[in-house]
Specification:
Radius of gyration: 23 Å
CATH superfamily of one domain: von Willebrand factor, type A domain
CATH class of one domain: Alpha Beta
Order of helices and strands: HEHEEHEEHHEHEEEHEH
CATH architecture of one domain: 3-Layer(aba) Sandwich
Strand content: 15-25%
Helix content: 25-40%
């Protein structure tokens, strides 16, 4: 099971940490998804008209202007958190998919607890917006229903995401992917920047993907296309592998920065609480 007893124990720790932090602020403060949802904002003044509630008159303004004016307030704006999850074939290797789903669930719970609307989306489907921590089970079910395998089409995942709600605050989008395909990832990040004020990328890679193994040779198979290739791991090949791995990480960091996204490297097996804290810092 993806959301097993170990995951739920870690989530309970996260819940207690959030509850303690909010209690220290009197139940309010900066939301874990960088938005303040549900807060009524002062929007300005307008001239008093007969029939207006006299409790809305700004008497301080009257003392200055010698005219009756009424305070106006903007309607509460609900923050939105969109979780874009890569469930492609390459993510099924080295515990990446399991980590991605558990990380999305933990981030989703934080969003719900902070009063945000949360939705998850992938190439093969998406959920509707979910509000309220009591509906967390719906988010878990939506994550588990997303079919795995195939190619990583992050553009399609973004397209499938539910439209922004009317009057919603500028939201946050978090992409969880190994970013193997650069060009689709770039287009997906560009699309997300048009709909979210904050875009965060959890670049999920195993250390095994970035280090040549000790074996003298490997039989490699592309997880998405099935193509196979045998590689002899000579000293030259190992040095080339190290350069390519470093270049790959640098290029993906530059790609995220070019689209105004914050990128954090995430490793399968990393402590869930520590990972979440890095992503929302």
């Amino acid at each position: 099971m993806i959301f097993d007893d170990d995951f739920r124990r870690r989530l309970e720790v996260l819940k207690r940490l959030v509850a303690r932090a909010l209690a220290g602020r009197g139940g309010s403060g900066r939301s874990p998804v960088r938005e303040r949802g549900g807060r009524i904002e002062f929007g300005g003044h307008r001239a008093y008209s007969p029939g207006d509630d006299v409790r809305g008159i700004d008497w301080n303004a009257y003392a200055r202007l010698e005219a009756l004016v009424v305070k106006e307030f903007e309607a509460p704006r609900e923050a939105e958190l969109l979780l874009v999850v890569d469930r492609s074939a390459s993510m099924q290797l080295l515990r990446k998919d399991r980590t991605a789903l558990q990380l999305a669930a933990a981030l989703g719970w934080l969003g719900l607890a902070a009063g945000a609307r949360v939705a998850c989306t992938a190439r093969s489907g998406s959920s509707a917006w979910i509000s309220g921590a009591e509906r967390f089970a719906e988010l878990l079910a939506a994550l588990e229903r997303m079919p795995a395998g195939g190619t990583a089409d992050l553009v399609e995942a973004v397209r499938r995401g539910p439209p922004r709600g009317a009057g919603a605050a500028a939201g946050t989008a978090i992409v969880i992917s190994d970013l193997y395909e650069a060009e689709p990832a770039a287009r997906a990040l560009a699309a997300l920047r048009r709909r979210a004020a904050t875009v965060v990328v959890a670049h999920l890679l195993s250390d095994e993907e970035l280090t040549a193994p000790a074996a003298p040779a490997l039989a490699l198979r592309d997880a998405e296309t099935g193509a196979q290739r045998r590689v002899v791991l000579s000293a030259t090949v190992r040095a080339s592998f190290a350069r390519e791995a470093a270049s790959f990480l640098s290029e993906r960091a530059s790609l995220a920065a070019a689209h105004g996204a914050q990128l954090q490297r995430v490793t399968p097996g990393e402590d869930l609480i520590a990972t979440v804290e890095r992503l929302i810092a």
